[in-house]
Amino acid sequence: MKTLAIETSCDETALALVDAKGQGEDSEFKILAEAIASQIKIHRPFGGVVPHLAKREHEKNLPIMLEEIKSQVNDFAPDQIAVTVGPGLEPALWPGINFAQELAEKMKLPLIGINHLEGHVFSNWLENKKAIEFPAVVLVISGGHTILLLMESINQWKKLGETRDDAIGEAFDKVARMLELPYPGGPEIEKLAHEGDPKSIKFPRPMINDKNYDFSFSGLKTSVLYRLKDHQDDKADVSASFQAAAFDVLSKKTLKAVGEFGAKSILLCGGVAANRTLQNRFSKMAEEEGLDFSVPQLKYNTDNGVMIAVAAHLGKDFPIKADSSLNL
Ligand code: KG4
Ligand code: ZN
User: Region 149-175: what's the mean pLDDT?
Assistant: First the structure.
């Protein structure tokens, strides 16, 4: 089954043509074509994504990305079209949905709506190096979400907790802005943190010892702001210390869930999962606990079209209308 997937929930216009064989966790995916137009340069002067600019860029880039996909294959013949319907910025979602709808009508193909967050989760099954063992604890960490899931099987999960305020990626982006680093801040903080001392500044670890699996990153962000007001710290030390505080909370809560539910694997996904420092830390932690660890390869952590095609095969089918508040 060949799926043409379309993703426009934020600032990437991403398309992919993926062939899926098999069922559920035994599925195998072959990426036939992929194309992505990043809008980072357009939003960078504003320090974040500007919705109406995102809409305009998606409208402009969608036909160009489709041509790019067609140029990568001899025979462009999808069996279905899948499009992200949420969560995301509503003005960004609609151009993708409208484009998908027109194309589906023109090509007489079925159209299915995809949950962007399912895309992140299922990107862990893309390579299928070895079967992921259940139960699995999954940490979804992106610019808009911070969610801890307990997966009993590939299509059965329970949300254990989520952020009560800022998403972790949002905190990275805001702290980067305070440090006058360009948008998106996550990769910039990670880079700078390599040269800093993570123990130099004691930032709070919000909710780290709470009994629940919820998170909060707004207080951590604010304490960075206050610290910068009355100290002349090295930016690398601030980056390293902020990152360490945020990752301490993620690790501790994940381990707690592993213990309580007897998990056999830990999975990471979402833009922040592209952070190598975090990946190394989780990989080590999993090894020490005798658990499997999985994270998609680097470019499939941040938004992309391939993950939407994978979710079209493994996930649920959602109504074809923008739903910015969709969740897991
Ligand atoms: O999943 P994603 O591409 O878009 C959303 O669905 O939100 O995630 C984007 C977020 C941004 O906040 C970005 O700063 C963060 O992921 N990010 C990182 C890294 N790469 C991207 N955060 C920390 N370290 C990174 N290397
Ligand atoms: Zn995303």
Answer: 97
